[in-house]
Amino acid sequence: MLSRSYFNLLNLDDYSSGGDRARIPRVISVPGIISDFDDHDGGLESDEAITPVHQERRIIVSNQLPLKAYKDSESKKWCFDWDEDALYLQLKDGFSPDVEFVYVGCLRVEIDPLEQEEVAQFLYEKFKCVPTFLPSNLMNKFYHGFCKHYLWPLFHYMLPFTPDHGVRFDKDMWQAYVSANKVFADKVMEVINPDEDYVWVHDYHLMVLPTFLRKRYNRVKLGFFLHSPFPSSEIYRTLPVREEILRALLNCDLIGFHTFDYARHFLSCCSRMLGLDYQSKRGYIGLDYYGRTVSIKILPVGIQLGQIKSIMSLPDTARKVKELKEKYDGKIVLLGVDDMDMFKGIGLKFQALGQLLDENPRYRGSVVLVQIMNSPRSQGNDIQEVQNEINKVVTEVNRRYGNTGYEPIVCINGPVSFQDKVAYYAISECVVVNAVRDGMNLVPYKYTACRQGSPYLDEGLGLEGSAAPRKSVIIVSEFIGCSPSLSGAIRVNPWNISCVAEAMHSAISMPDSEKELRHEKHYKYVTSHDVAYWARSFDQDLERACAQYYQKRCWGIGFGLNSRVVALGPNFRKLSVEHIVSAYKNTSSRLILLDYDGTMMPQDLVNKSPCQDVISVLNGLCNDPMNVVFIVSGRGKDSLENWFSPCERLGLSAEHGYFTRWTKNSTWESCGLAVDLSWKNIVLPIMEHYTEATDGSSIEQKESALVWHHQEADPDFGTWQAKELLDHLESVLANDPVVVKRGQHIVEVKPQGVSKGVVVENLMSTMRNTGKPPDFVLCIGDDRSDEDMFESIASSVASRSMPDTAEVFACTVGQKPSMAKYYLDDTFEVIKMLQGLSAASAHQFLKSPHNQVSFEGSN
């Protein structure tokens, strides 16, 4: 339940209000016109009108802009340059030069409020950057509070079990997170052309931003890429705002993850918490969400090879390499490059080196681990604790195994320039990436590229003119995103110190030929899957995912962070009570077909028997002599007979049409098929085996069918077991005249030729044979079995087996893809609509009573 104290944050229409807010000029889509300024003189003269030219644009939204900022020492003015190391800048390599990029995000420095408007104008004009100036208190709660100290540890599998170990959920920080995301959304809205632009949002800082954009623009073309891990459902479900974040991400058209594990965890959360199932079609994974298909992209990010090659080609880089080569002459250099945080496993790495030196005294004096530690990205006691642990282990290892002129561990505290890192990569025999959890980590990729070398680097390494194959070794944690793509790396469990020490020994003692083969394999991958490939692939999939809007109608529903968009076919519309009542009054031979579960009664009720309102409306419809009313259900005939005993003129079709009864006083008729039910002796033991093995599952035995239910089982396990049961039954029943079908949380085995569609055909045929072909057909259902009825009705219309003037209303319950042309939102609306028809019948009957028409017993 959302707090009233920040309900105003979810008012998505207020972004344009407030005249004192500094605004960024909109992009000029028509030369000479800036849409932010009103033309009080009546606009351009006719001879100045220019045909609009739409330039392709991508709006990149990230927590930080890809800019470096500093103040000029003389003018005291702010100066800005591109940050060439920023991924969000590098991704431009994957696009044509004709594509324009607009960046939305925060600056890394705090700008005085009096200077913000001037700085914003300058950044937009020169860099096409739109800064989001967050007040310092909001920034602290949003970034250092909710993002870095709550979300980030949680997404890296760290739960705050005690107040002393981690930050627990704080409502104020969550409100700050929502507020900050809304500021970002407002800035996007100031520059977006929603009909043309594609928006690409990055990382966990902005996970609710898609809801704000989707609410404002129903057809916005929106992608999101998560650069951190997505935790398993057992971890994620501890988040008090778990559904709000999931639903916000589902407001995107494409969601990207580095690995299948991360995507699988996200899909599992959607299944367990929102009841959404995913499908894989032609290599693409998609979730159906209110008629929209949310696509899932799995692709690890790459590096920008051009930047690395340009740095390797600098004479100054060769000089640095030569200096380092001389400094560590005769040494075997292992390298680590990590951020200073609790998940990088730096202390574990140092302990592993200590164990290596303890077990292999011959390496003392020759093996050096150089550890470059980048500056921490957050503040807090946890950073100091990590630093203290590292210092303690370094001191101990260097004291025990070092001597004068030799330190086994050399720590270099950042910031360290990328050029210096390239030099260290070039001289290192092995890189060790030992994180206990990391979203991606590009260090192994950069190391591989640098070990490939260049003429200048070869000169610094003393390899000038050498044609010797390149070699490298990577030790990588199995818990980081880049691990699956490095098939030639030595994968380790960072928590197993002995395992890491053994990996270090293997890397040092590995034959050169083996190192060459591993390097060749990695370099081939790194060069073919660079950042340009990643960006281009994501953008192509985003365009494909957004193409669905061209064939659908879209409108928004819901409030606040539960806002979402329904996208349905152009001919799929809500059934109007006034429209159907009008058609109902003008017809005289009506067929009304109603599913029961999920149509007349909600699915989640424990007591499935019909309430008095249902009985009353059915009797009202049945009392009209011009109506033939049937309940068409998958339930057994005994249940239906008991529940609807008060409805004397109601027709019942049980077990998907295997049994039919025209009125209460008539007998049940079977479908007329010569059915052999001996297959039950084979199926029942198999289903009993799966029921025993699947907690929460059950078997429903009908006279004509057997149904295995797994709605109460674990969602993932139940689905797996259902797939296995389906395959099992299809194989053993291949030669039997039965159909094995999967439905919503069920696997059903029933005779061939039995379906709700056949029921519709038989009823229509009977009415035609009595000289009363239906001129009004209403069919309502909610699940897959009801689609057979809709298909049968559509076939009857196409084959002209009904009068040309017949009114046909095929209606599904819920806004979802269907063969029906109409929908109603829920069972309440179904009953309300039927009550409208019943009332029309009562009024009509009083005016002109007719004699009852009977179809009972007709064939």
From TrEMBL:
GO BP annotations of the record are: trehalose metabolic process
Recorded hits in Pfam families, A to Z, give: Glyco_transf_20, Trehalose_PPase
EC identifiers of the protein: 2.4.1.15
- Matches recorded under Gene3D superfamilies: Glycogen Phosphorylase B, HAD superfamily/HAD-like
Q: Which domain of life is it from?
A: Eukaryota
* Gene Ontology MF terms in the entry: alpha,alpha-trehalose-phosphate synthase (UDP-forming) activity
Query: Which reaction does this enzyme catalyse, per its entry?
Result: D-glucose 6-phosphate + UDP-alpha-D-glucose = alpha,alpha-trehalose 6-phosphate + UDP + H(+)
Give the record's keywords alphabetically: Glycosyltransferase, Phosphoprotein, Transferase
Return the similarity comment: In the C-terminal section; belongs to the trehalose phosphatase family.
Q: What protein is this chain from? A: alpha,alpha-trehalose-phosphate synthase (UDP-forming)
Species: Abeliophyllum distichum
